[in-house]
Amino acid sequence: MLILIKRKTVYIGTLENEIKILEGGNLNHEITIKGNDELSSLAQGINEMRKSFIERLESEDKAHLANSELITAMSHDLRTPLTALVGYLDIIEYKKYKTDENLKQYIHSSREKAYQIKYLSDKLFEYFIVFNTNDDDLELETFDGNELLEQLLGEQSFILEDNEFDFEIDSCNTPFFIEVSLISIRRVFDNIFSNIIKYADKSKSIKVKYYIQKKLLFIYIENEINNNLKTVNSTGIGLRTCKKIIEGHNGKIETGKQKNTFFIQIELPIKLSNS
């Protein structure tokens, strides 16, 4: 079992490095395809995407900039669940979990991330949502709002705690329902918290608060900025992806900085259980 996990971890690392090569603009690099499972399906999908973009770039010179941005966006979104999956597998392989219940949770989270990766590989060409898809293309489902947020924030708390962050949640006591595209909203949370891991100060708690006001859900996240980091060049693709997705749900997203504190607030329409 541990040997199999080790092989998968190495293969995931290979794919992650090759995605970075594509992100750098080298579309001639072949993606390594091994086995016959979700990861090999992902590799095959990325390779087909790579070939399709080569053909498109050759025939549409005017679309060069947009395609470059699209490749960067895909790489960004694919690398996030890959990184999380590597983290979960490392915890399992090196027995960093404390109880059997923790082990079950990490196995469950690994399975969830694997399905997320498979979904992304099946939907590679849907990533132009950032630039030119219609909001009507989102596949919306209705969820119990508190259960959904508990699930999404629970997934992120595992990753944050594994990266030595403290995590504080101020939950909502109001029952409500929310209509969202689960895979899209999960991408928003993955983008936000992957940036927190990169840029936040580990000595300060990550604070999350969500509440209901006038049939709107407000999700407020703040963290202290790590001033010891070197200047990092960012494409801003992640934030643009989040903005497009939230707007596609008829919501709003706002980011800002107050002294050394970075915050992000998401506003989404909801339906109260008694309305």
UniProtKB/TrEMBL annotation:
Pfam families in UniProt: HAMP, HATPase_c_5, HisKA
CC terms in the record's Gene Ontology section: plasma membrane
Keyword Nucleotide-binding: yes
Known catalytic reactions: ATP + protein L-histidine = ADP + protein N-phospho-L-histidine
Compartment(s) of residence: Cell membrane
The keyword Phosphoprotein is assigned to this record: yes
Coiled-coil spans in chain: none
SUPFAM superfamilies listed in its UniProt record: ATPase domain of HSP90 chaperone/DNA topoisomerase II/histidine kinase, HAMP domain-like, Homodimeric domain of signal transducing histidine kinase
Top-level class of the enzyme under EC nomenclature: transferase
E.C. designation(s): 2.7.13.3
Keyword annotations: ATP-binding, Cell membrane, Kinase, Membrane, Nucleotide-binding, Phosphoprotein, Transferase, Transmembrane, Transmembrane helix, Two-component regulatory system
Bilayer topology: Multi-pass membrane protein
Sequence ranges assigned to domain HAMP in this UniProt record: 6-58
Listed GO MF terms: ATP binding; phosphorelay sensor kinase activity
SMART domains reported for this sequence: HisKA
InterPro entries, per the entry: HAMP_dom, HATPase_C_sf, His_kinase_dom, HisK_dim/P_dom, HisK_dim/P_sf, HssS/ArlS-like, NatK-like_C
Histidine kinase domain segment(s): 73-272
Protein name, UniProt field: histidine kinase
Provenance organism: Clostridium carboxidivorans P7
Upper lineage: Bacteria, Bacillati, Bacillota, Clostridia, Eubacteriales
